[in-house]
Amino acid sequence: MRLTVSTWNINSVRLRIDQVLRFLAEDRPDVLCLQETKCPDDAFPLKALRGSGYEHVVFAGQKGYNGVAILSRFPLLSRDVMGFCERADARHISAVLGPEAGAAAGIVLHDFYVPAGGDVPDPALNPKFAHKLGFLDELRVWGGRRVSGPAILVGDLNVAPLEHDVWSHKQLLDVVSHTPVETERLETLRGEAGWIDTARLLTPQPEKIYTWWSYRSPDWASANKGRRLDHAWVSPDLAACVRAVTVSRHTRAWERPSDHVPVTLTIEL
């Protein structure tokens, strides 16, 4: 059985519902995990998404900020939300694929939106950066060790951890998302829990991989100053099942795009 799981920071699911529906129609992933939906639960566009063939949807949102959702072609057995840093700010949701998913039944899906961290990489001067580091520390404590059995962790982790995950390692060492204090935290927590970074499993360095291009760049495509902020990890028991990781760069050129693009993990079970 082939299972495809996409992750996309959509930067407002209501503003970009047409882009979501277009991606679902054209790419047809089995599961789509969204971040930064910026939508309270009572305004989530559930009808439109179910009408596109994704009848099984779980979400956690709030007005104007953050927000995560999982859309699935297969039934989902549960909905769980974790809070971090003593905040209920809709940055995580998880669900389990039901028996109808066949060989994929029982896989736990985790969808995360890690804080961006602001612009100043000093926790003493920037509360947003302090929050980001605290979030990563708590994520390390969790680590996924509570999960028994196969699991997939995706999301906008807001860290480009490796040298070739950014357009210029040297120029971005002091830029939030690629500072050593962030990259070391993310790689440590991933390694301790045994999560496999699927993009780099299939495409090792030094090949560049980007999933985000800033709105501030007047010509993002030609400048190509990207970062790999969006990730798809699997538990060790799924590592041998990984077949592809696809970055849908073309969606960055769509009308009113998100600054992130979908990343799709394909596994065979």
Description:
There is one protein chain. This protein is of the alpha+beta class and 269 residues long. The chain contains 6 helices and 13 strands. The strands form 3 sheets. It has a 6-stranded mixed beta sheet. Strands 5-6-7-11-8 form a 5-stranded mixed beta sheet. A two-stranded antiparallel ribbon has the order 9-10. α1 links the parallel β1 and β2. α3 packs parallel to α4. It is globular and about 45 Å long. The mean pLDDT is 96.
Quick synopsis:
The chain is of the alpha+beta class. The chain has 6 helices and 13 strands. The mean pLDDT is 96.
Q: Major β-sheet, in short?
A: 6 strands, mixed
Q: Spans of 5+ residues with little confidence (pLDDT < 50)? A: none
User: Helical element count?
Assistant: 6
* Helix content percent band: 10-25%
What coarse outline follows from CA principal-axis ratios?
globular
Structural class call reads alpha+beta
Question: What percent of residues are in strands?
Answer: 15-25%
Distance between the termini: 5 Å
What's the gyration radius in Å?
17 Å
Q: Please, what is the average pLDDT?
A: 96
Q: Give, in spatial order, the strands making up the sheet with the most strands.
A: 3-4-2-1-13-12
Strand-and-helix sequence, N→C? EHEHEEEEHEHEHEHEEEE
> How many beta-strand elements?
13
Key terms for this structure?
alpha+beta; five-stranded mixed β-sheet; six-stranded mixed β-sheet; 21% helix
Question: Helices and strands in order, then pairings?
Answer:
Elements: E1 2-9, H1 17-27, E2 31-35, H2 46-51, E3 56-60, E4 68-72, E5 92-96, E6 108-113, H3 127-142, E7 151-156, H4 180-193, E8 196-197, H5 198-202, E9 212-213, H6 220-223, E10 226-227, E11 230-234, E12 242-247, E13 263-268
Parallel strand pairs: 1-2, 6-7
Antiparallel strand pairs: 1-13, 2-4, 3-4, 5-6, 7-11, 8-11, 9-10, 12-13
